[in-house]
Amino acid sequence: MSIPKAELREEVIVALNTRFPALRKLYGIKKIGIFGSFARGDEHQASDVDIQVEFEQGSETYRNYIGLALYLEELLGHRVDLVTTRVLEGYLHADVDADHAERNRDRVYITRMLDECVFLLQRKRDSAFREFSRDELLKRAAIRSLEIIGDGAARTSDRTKASYPGIPWKELAGMKDRLAGMYFSPDWVLVWDILQNEIPVLEPRLRSLAGSL
Question: What is the spatial distance between Cα 77 and Cα 158, in angstroms, rounded to a whole number?
Fold first, then answer.
């Protein structure tokens, strides 16, 4: 039997408030709270819990961050998206309602995708495949950028996707996993083809979409 939304949200808030002294002592947090669907009250049983955290000066370490995230997931019994205040500020606008929140999230995803396209175009510039294939840093950066682009495409709402059919959402989603599996190195010829022929077409389309959100 699922827990009613109001009770689920209340459980999360009570748990955070009750455990705050322990969290401060264990992980050096200064502030902690919820945002996203739980803050708006439109979460459901399978929702990730979006939690915003600010650490005390000197406690901003990855060990504290990942330790807190794992602790909260065990405490709450839900997957936790833990975001620091420093990252969150200036990224998401105030969520008035679910539609506005969806639009805000899409704006973040599209902006990230666009940023990665611009990065790839700037780094590649006039280089040829020969230079690219020998540049280990650029190759690793390219795979990471394509991963971010694919993840952004997968997370963008169906409404936005339907409004912009000129962007190959399905093909972009999961792109990194198709290009580089766990057991094989990437096919750099295919990666180069994406940089050479797909990204230059995708970038202006994403720029146009970002400007309309």
Answer: 28
What CATH number does the domain containing 66 carry? Answer: 3.30.460.10
Regarding whether 74 and 139 lie in a shared domain, the answer is no
109 CB contacts (<8 Å, ≥6 apart)? 152, 153, 155, 156
Instruction: Indicate the SS3 state at residue 82.
Output: strand
Both 104 and 191 in one domain: the answer is yes
Residues 6+ apart with CB under 8 A from 173: 150, 151, 153, 154
Q: For all residues of the chain together, what is the average pLDDT?
A: 85
pLDDT digit string (tens) for 120-129? 999 988 889 9
* 57 alpha carbon, distance to own chain's centre: 25
**33 and 69, same domain (yes or no):** yes
Give the SS3 label for residue 84: strand
